[in-house]
Amino acid sequence: MKYTSCIHLEHGITFFSNSVQICCISSHPGGGNIMQIANYHGEPVNWAEIFEKRKLMRDGLKKSIIPQKCTGCYYLKDQEWNSDNYFDEVLIGHFTHCNCNCIYCYTEKDKKFFNNNKTYNIYPVIKDMIDKGILSKKSTITFGGGEPTILSEFEELVYLLLDYDVYNIRIHSDAIKFSPAIEKGLQLGKITLITSVDSSSEKIYEKVKNVPCFNKVWENLKHYAEAKNGLIRTKYVLIPGVNDNLREVKNWMQMTYDSGIRNIAFDIEDNWFKENRKKIPKYIYVIFDFVNNCFKQYGLDSCELYERASNLKIDRDNSF
Ligand code: SF4
Ligand code: SF4
To answer: What is the distance in A from the centroid of ligand 1 to the CA of 12?
Structure first.
């Protein structure tokens, strides 16, 4: 049946450090954060209950009742949907610790707390989903939270997903720690690695990241790029007043190509975007348009726009 819904409302699940939700999208007017299990810390999941909730919501969607928290979300689409009980959009974000200190990170509010925030082992939960046949092999599994490569179960979990032959594993890693499991997944063409470098010089890198790891990160990225089959994106989160220099941006695209990487991603710092969404300065569009329109001139194959950059584009398209 054709109705308005989204890939997450239909088959998405997101694991946070203390809850299970449908998705992690939040910068639209509705604000997201649709709860599935509150106060969750890795306990076995009652999947039948989750699917029952999903059915009730789907019944509403079929009558054009859109959850208030989804209002204005660009993920909503009017199309045919499959209402079988399975997951194929999974976010693993149950960890908040990180070996980096990005100034734009939500963990900056209280780094000590987030670095010591007790996390649970998600391996048994994912294994349970595989054993019960509710994790589609066509899934996109995304790692994002703190830094996944320093999770104790990370290597084992990635090998589990690779053995299961899941379609795509998207890993957001700062690439400070080299991971053999990521390298293996890239060789198999099953992993998309996204690393926010946010700079092309040691000076700006350290201003944004607060760790002296610029050279190490690019060395690891070059090493990953030797795997050839997988997809690697370097990402630039534009932070007005910090790394909003067109030369830095151009050099980032060039460094990406020189490192053997052919894909990039672009975004805008979340807090700044929320505050300035209705009054975006012209020079931000200049940088945005340059990245979005000129990446091919640098020999790059694609540019993925993340949430805020997508919203910037949609807002401008709608204003014409
Ligand atoms: S419409 Fe947006 S907020 Fe709602 S579930 Fe989908 S992605 Fe999340
Ligand atoms: S690498 Fe990611 S998790 Fe770590 S501090 Fe930066 S934004 Fe936060």
So the answer is: 9
